[in-house]
């Protein structure tokens, strides 16, 4: 006989309360796992996107909140492209906006004949004939989400575009995007002569340190611009930072909700078991053993809530695929690190929540407990 | 080991205890000696202080003034009384107070958690005690699957888990029918005789008190009378 059967059976007997408490913890933990997965998913997608293009560095205006940075002049882009060590460049103008039935989709335009176009694999239709053609390519996911095929018309940026082709990309971000030539986008979005990203490809001889030097040079000579190596770009991206900020906020919120939920359950449990605790004290249990029992119970709730939260996060990830408008655009990548962090976090929350009830229970005098009867 | 010259196991010396900021005086200077191997019944009307006195003797409560001694040592000098309650005293309650989620066997093992016995030995001892109280066939039953009399017998087995010197029973038959009352009282008497366990029981039922050799009547927080009568076996 040890504490385990007492603790596990106490939780099992009060099924509904245990289930509701677990749900209270699990929802918060699910949100943490999902947001961490979202952040990782975006990071990986962003890296995949730049890798697929063969981009070594990205230049954009320093931005705080918006996932799409403010535009800057193509003249500046040209100056940067002329720097020693830069083999090729490609200006990009992107926007996130509603298009037809979709509340939000990425529209991205690339400098015609830049190296960025090279990685696209057209699976249906054709590329635009030239950099001025008012036609768009749809990523495979975007075509599914929009319910469009080659030859259809697509209304966006206040005008109708024809869909000339559908492409495949290893990048999920690009697969869910609409691609058109830079000049056409500039003309229809009041951004003539502007880009909001400049992709750079370095000379083959430029190593990471050399690339870093070029980035430093860009930032030194153009205040207000941020230059990141492709490998660092995702970390510095506003979207990544926003999701990380949200993750932190949700983590703190989950901690408060988890603490309140488990503490409430444990206080109720201690209150209901006043006589039982009094009997245990009467027959010789030390106060420390009572504390251990209550702490074990709350910690167990934390562990189980954490595990349930992870399971729910996996479930949410799978459910997203039933909503193409969301599932096609974002990916939740749940890795072992996120699972370990969440379960450990939930365990700590459970243990902390049990502290006060455990101390209260252990200080209970048997005679007072019996009077509670 | 108790000195052979001192037959007194537990002793109350001028013990007072009040509740509700002194408004309710439960004990008013009680003096009492319980000899080793004795069988004592404490009787009296409700509120006479008999349960409070029992709790004092068992180290569940502490006096406002006066002192409780066990084998000559004051309980107040022992610090944490958990070990005293676990090793020296066995409690039997009116409402049995078994843990509903545990089997009879596990309930009996609950006081043994601090003992040096191995898990297997504890289990064997619990089974042995349950056999001793006639519940060898009900070892794995939960309290909800047992009758009132059976539950009290499990509680008695639990009280014997650490082979205590002093068995304290607070209205042990208060929730039982006549048949179960007889069975439980005969069981307690048998344990007292066979093991030499000192038994103090609180009861308001004269027929239950008749099992004891010595009867103490409490009234208004004081000992009203203290008499010795031959137990039923001797009558």
Which helices and strands, and how do they pair?
The complex is a heterodimer of chains A (373) and B (235).
Chain A: H1 3-13, H2 15-53, E1 57-61, E2 72-73, H3 74-81, E3 86-99, E4 102-110, E5 121-125, E6 135-139, H4 140-146, E7 153-156, E8 159-168, H5 172-175, E9 177-181, H6 182-188, E10 194-195, E11 197-202, H7 208-221, E12 225-229, H8 230-236, H9 238-272, H10 274-282, H11 287-320, H12 324-327, H13 336-362, H14 366-372
Helix pairs in contact in A: 1-11, 2-8, 2-9, 2-11, 2-13, 9-11, 9-13, 10-14, 11-13
Chain B: E1 8-19, E2 24-35, E3 39-44, H1 50-57, E4 65-70, E5 73-74, H2 82-88, E6 89-92, H3 104-109, H4 119-132, H5 148-159, E7 166-170, H6 178-195, E8 198-202, H7 206-209, E9 214-219, E10 222-228
Parallel strand pairs in B: 3-8, 3-9, 6-7, 7-8
Antiparallel strand pairs in B: 1-2, 1-4, 4-5, 9-10
Helix pairs in contact in B: 4-5, 5-6
